Amino acid sequence: MAIRRICKYGEKILEKKTRKVNFAELKKSLPALLADMFETMNAVGGAGLAANQIGLDLRLAVISIKREEEEPLSIVIINPELVEKSGTMNEEEGCLSFPGLFAKIRRAVKVKVRAINEKGLPIEINAEGLFAKALQHEIDHLDGVVFISRLPLLSRLRLKPALIKLKSRWKKIDESKMAVRAPAQVVKPE
Ligand SMILES: [Zn+2]
């Protein structure tokens, strides 16, 4: 297992729609890849990680949601598709490709997602709240959509000068070379 470097805002692969996974082709290397993805996500305290965030053009992501007095809810989604959504919420979100940046993003409260799991079996997930938010965030990644592009135009414009500064700082962060991540500076758009 190894911690991989996470691609940061500005790296082209984050803005490109990922390629559908051919499960039979990937099957052999999948366990090692998923182990690395979970290790990387956990090392930096993330709730989700998409394959293109570690530089791989693959439509797959891992999610891990912390729960009170319970094991985290961990799931692998391969070739996920959002098939239903309802309600709206406007909750704070962060992203491992934007370390320390948090913004309120409008999302559906409830979603239905179809995907295949790490065994290659079809799954249907009905999620709400935090879990629904994570699923939407990761599927967006796989579609080449980063969370700040979901901000209203005015907020995006206000954030731009800070982003330009942060971008050069983020570029230098290499999670694969870090034992413990230094706390990132927290930035919140108005
Ligand atoms: Zn993200």
Describe this structure in words.
This protein has 190 residues and is an alpha+beta fold. The chain has one domain: Peptide Deformylase, CATH 3.90.45. Helix content is 27%, strand content 28%. The chain is built from four helices and seven strands, in the order ααβββββββαα. It has helices at 23-26, 30-43, 129-142, 153-171, and strands at residues 48-50, 60-67, 70-86, 89-94, 102-107, 110-116, 122-128. The strands form two sheets. Strands 1-2-3-6-7 form a five-stranded antiparallel beta sheet, with helices on both faces. Strands 4-5 form a two-stranded antiparallel ribbon. A hairpin with a 7-residue loop joins β4 and β5 (102-107). The site of zinc ion (ZN) has 6 residues, from α3.
CATH superfamily: Peptide deformylase
The unique ligands bound to this protein are: zinc ion
Strand content bin: 25-35%
Mean pLDDT: 93
What overall form do the CA principal axes indicate?
globular
CATH-defined topology: Peptide Deformylase
User: How many distinct domains?
Assistant: 1
Number of helical regions? 4
Number of strands: 7
Draw up the topology in text.
Layout: H1 23-26, H2 30-43, E1 48-50, E2 60-67, E3 70-86, E4 89-94, E5 102-107, E6 110-116, E7 122-128, H3 129-142, H4 153-171
Antiparallel strand pairs: 1-2, 2-3, 3-6, 4-5, 6-7
The chain binds zinc ion.
Residues 95-97, 137, 141, 147 line the site of zinc ion.
